Amino acid sequence: MKKVWLLGFGFFSISLTWGLYNAFVPLFLDDFIKSTALIGFLMTVDNYFALFIQPWIGHRSDRTDTRFGKRMPYLLIGMPLSAIFFAFIPFHISLWTLVLFMVLMNLSMSLYRSPTVSLMPDITMDAKRSQANGIINFMGGVGSVIAFSIGSKLYDIHPSFPFLMASAVILLSLWILVTNIKEKRDAVGYSVAEKRTIRIRGELDRSTIFLLGAIFFWFTSYQGIEALFTLYGTHHLGMSDSAASFSLLFFTGAFLLFTLPSGWLGGKFGKKTMITIGVIGMGACYAAMIFIDAAVWLRLFLVIGGVFWACININSYPFVVSTGREASIGTRTGLYYLVSALAAIISPPLLGRLIDLFGYTVMFIYTTFGMILALISILLVKDKGRTSAKKEVIYEG
Questions:
Q1: Cα separation of 153 and 246, whole Å?
Q2: Which residues, 6 or more positions from 274, have their beta carbon under 8 angstroms from its beta carbon?
Q3: What is the CATH number of domain 2-181+200-379?
Q4: How many helices (H) and strands (E) does the chain have?
Q5: 18-77 residue pLDDT tens
Q6: Helix-strand-coil percent breakdown of the chain, rounded to 5?
Q7: What is the model's pTM?
Q8: Which of 356, 368, 347, 241 is nearest to 301 (CA)?
Q9: Where are the domains of the chain?
Q10: Separation of alpha carbons 124 and 130, rounded Å
């Protein structure tokens, strides 16, 4: 598991970056745009790349073979570029330069996100992947905690400081990964997928479709809140910018503390069981938040929600991967991001439009409904475990 902890630095940098991005970029946009729906739309830029580029990159990495391995070349290109463009964001001089830096940063991130995630199952045996996913998400959670705690303090000093900090962390993380993880040495069974046509529909049996549906619905709930939470805190609860972003620390901190236990419980009781418990608990928390109008109660339910989100998030990706071949890990990672990106594209502008029409109280009604649909979908999934080695799937790419 030592290599998994080292791989966690990649997730640390990704989570730190996205935490700062989602906390502060809406505030930059709010200086130019007064429509919450339009801000929500612009905050989905990364997901358009995730929808089209990340599945292709993930599939392409399955068939890449270089002296650095099959995933690492994408990190070597994408991470330095994302560090540069992320550092540029707070130095925008107009709406157009802000959007330009956002687009370039998101494009760069999309080059290496799927390959980074795919490295986890590459270097981990199937039976240990829930625990390994707990470890790397723990590291990612540390990044998010830093984003919402230290990042909010640095933002008060100067808005550029948290962005410069994250860019430095991205470059440091790349150095750690390149120095310590050698794919051809560390992979459980290093192999390159055959360069032949692949039919995606061969992956999509009934259970997989319902699983991807569940992922879509819970990310619909989660992404809407993540993109617009700071605006909810400032406009609805009267918090300052830094206090609103700091409130997310309560959710992220609880998630962080429960990442390792959730992975262990997923390995012991089953991934579907833990996901189902998480969806029920998360839906109950969102339902309770409908009636909250004070920051102290909001933060309490954010803590509870973070625990249940760990049950979902830690076990869902290994659940998706476990239904396919080892050689198709990157492709299935791309499918996971395809569905979550679709939810993230639809949800923030849709929720923003509902807020424009009905006010911020509609936010948690919307997210509760999403979790109800996720629960129905996950209950229809049959947990059959890993597909038999004899049942090879052919993809189209």
A1: 9
A2: 262, 265, 266, 311, 312, 314, 315
A3: 1.20.1250.20
A4: 16, 0
A5: 888 988 898 899 889 888 778 877 887 777 776 778 777 877 777 787 888 888 889 999
A6: 80, 0, 20
A7: 0.71
A8: 368
A9: 2-181+200-379
A10: 10
